[in-house]
Design goal:
The protein is an alpha+beta fold and 367 residues long. It folds into 3 domains: 2-151, no CATH class; 154-211, no CATH class; 220-354, no CATH class. The chain is 49% helix and 12% strand. It contains 15 helices and 12 strands. A two-stranded antiparallel ribbon has the order 1-2. A two-stranded antiparallel ribbon has the order 3-4. It has a two-stranded antiparallel ribbon with strand order 5-8. Strand 1 and strand 2 form a beta hairpin. The two termini are 58 Å apart.
Length: 367
């Protein structure tokens, strides 16, 4: 054990020493970057800009090139900070934050007010402090920058070949905070058997937030054979999605409104029945009052965010009597219908969950 500690101390010191050498090299690279920008060599070689030439030939990202150019151009304004890097008091990452701050505030930049903060805080925390500094120097410009960020908000939605919805977007700091505040409580681990990673919990939380804990108003077209899960039945169809499975359809049909639509042989509508709620208002209120929250062991998702689940599905003859109903949050409802979990109510009202059957190996073939 002592040998491992000694070895760790040696490696730790080497990491610190190597990083200092890297910081010094990055300082020199920043100086060279600023000098290169003033030449015409990049134009002679046919590049679109000196920054583009550096990005391609030095194998860097655009942001990295921009940081180095900013620092190189402002070395005269950052003389004390450069000395602090050389003296191992701060790192090059601090210097990059300092350079971006100098660019933002212009002539009002005062290195002496920021250098003590750089010595005290990590680069990430120092960036946070520099934002406060920028606001104190020019609150109007800071507000204008945030307004411009909000105007750049965008969200792209596209559908993958498997029907999955692909999301890609950017939110300004305020909008991002609003979304994070809404998602964080819903992205916490919920009950037993929750082995989801945080990104998975965020994705499920987004779906739950969009539905507001209530069955979505989605039109699904399916045959009774599909709803019953009979062999040979086609999948169900819904807007903005590829065909969905009978298991997913049964989950959605647990707590929904059903409208009968009769078609003739030419697929023309000949009759539309009245929409009928599977779990009516009074029954749902009674269910919420009895269960209070998701009844999956260890889950406390409130009733308002839960679905009413039929232990025996209504399509198989299950009733809307209280003994056949239970509140389940969206995730656990999906685990029952699509994940092959089973939920059983004991005589005393206690619920028991049974994991899917796991089969090992291949079945024996005929001799």
């Amino acid at each position: 054990m002592l040998q491992m500690v000694d070895r760790g101390a040696v490696v730790a010191q080497q990491l610190i020493e190597n990083q200092h050498q890297i910081d010094l090299l990055l300082l020199e690279q920043s100086r060279l970057t600023a000098e290169f920008v003033k030449t015409d060599f990049w134009d002679w070689e046919g590049s679109a800009s000196p920054y583009d030439w550096i990005r391609i030939n030095c194998h860097l990202t655009s942001n990295t090139v921009s940081d180095r150019a900013t620092i190189g151009e402002r070395l005269a304004d950052l003389s004390q900070s450069v000395q602090a890097v050389e003296a191992r008091e701060i790192g090059f990452a601090h210097l990059a934050v300092m350079g971006r701050t100098a660019d933002a505030v212009g002539k009002a930049f005062d290195e002496t007010k920021l250098l003590p903060l750089a010595r005290e805080y990590s680069p990430g925390k120092f960036h946070f402090k520099c934002l406060h500094y920028r606001h104190s120097v020019d609150a109007r410009a800071y507000a204008q920058e945030q307004a411009e960020q909000a105007q750049q908000n965008h969200l792209d939605l596209s559908t993958g070949e498997d029907g999955s919805l692909l999301l890609n977007g950017v939110l300004d700091p305020i909008g991002g905070a609003v979304v994070r505040i809404a998602l964080e409580p819903l992205a916490r681990m919920s009950g037993e058997h929750d082995d989801r990673l945080l990104p998975q919990r965020y994705a499920d939380a987004l779906v739950e937030l969009a539905s507001r804990g209530k069955p979505a108003n989605i039109q699904v077209t399916a045959t009774i054979e599909t709803l019953k899960g009979l062999a040979g039945a086609a999948g169900a169809e819904m807007e903005f999605s590829l065909p969905i499975s009978s298991s997913s359809l049964q989950m959605m049909a647990c707590d929904c409104s059903v409208t009968r639509v009769l078609l003739n042989q030419e697929s023309l509508v000949v009759d539309i029945g009245r929409s009928r709620r599977m779990i009516s208002g009074p029954a749902r209120k009674a269910l919420n009052a009895r269960d209070g929250h998701c009844r999956w062991p260890g889950c406390e998702r409130p009733a308002a965010w839960c679905d009413g689940h039929h232990i025996v599905h209504w399509v198989h003859g299950g009733t809307n009597e209280p003994d056949n109903l239970v509140l389940l949050c969206r995730r656990h409802h999906r685990m029952v219908h699509e994940g092959n979990w089973h939920i059983i109510r004991c005589d005393d009202g206690h619920l028991v969950t049974i994991a899917p059957t796991i089969r090992f190996g291949l079945p024996r073939r005929p001799d």
